[in-house]
């Protein structure tokens, strides 16, 4: 009887210990790297990543130049295949830099102004900082 009670106590101890370990892992290791940064920093990182490919920059430049929603094939403007261009458009749309709507058999894309405003605001912040610090810089 005494041995059985001891085994139950040991099992109970290990079970509680296991729960504590799981809780620790959940609290410390469960956090993603992005959880340690502000919402604004995370948003800017997503936007920057979307602009991190020359094809996406070319798409953005084209949409800015046209200054209208494009319902035709953007693929004609780039030296890339249609599936590749579609993937780049998807990345830009997911980041909030462009909008896409289905019209008939095609998807129309145009610039999403709020996405550009976020990028503009960040670069204005950097520019203001540089203007203030120019004389103090090494």
TrEMBL record:
<feature type="domain" description="HTH arsR-type">
    <location>
        <begin position="36"/>
        <end position="134"/>
    </location>
</feature>
<keyword id="KW-0804">Transcription</keyword>
<dbReference type="InterPro" id="IPR011991">
    <property type="entry name" value="ArsR-like_HTH"/>
</dbReference>
<dbReference type="GO" id="GO:0003700">
    <property type="term" value="F:DNA-binding transcription factor activity"/>
</dbReference>
<dbReference type="InterPro" id="IPR001845">
    <property type="entry name" value="HTH_ArsR_DNA-bd_dom"/>
</dbReference>
<keyword id="KW-0805">Transcription regulation</keyword>
<dbReference type="Pfam" id="PF01022">
    <property type="entry name" value="HTH_5"/>
</dbReference>
<dbReference type="InterPro" id="IPR036388">
    <property type="entry name" value="WH-like_DNA-bd_sf"/>
</dbReference>
<dbReference type="InterPro" id="IPR036390">
    <property type="entry name" value="WH_DNA-bd_sf"/>
</dbReference>
<dbReference type="GO" id="GO:0003677">
    <property type="term" value="F:DNA binding"/>
</dbReference>
<keyword id="KW-0238">DNA-binding</keyword>
<dbReference type="InterPro" id="IPR051081">
    <property type="entry name" value="HTH_MetalResp_TranReg"/>
</dbReference>
<protein>
    <submittedName>
        <fullName>Transcriptional regulator, ArsR family</fullName>
    </submittedName>
</protein>
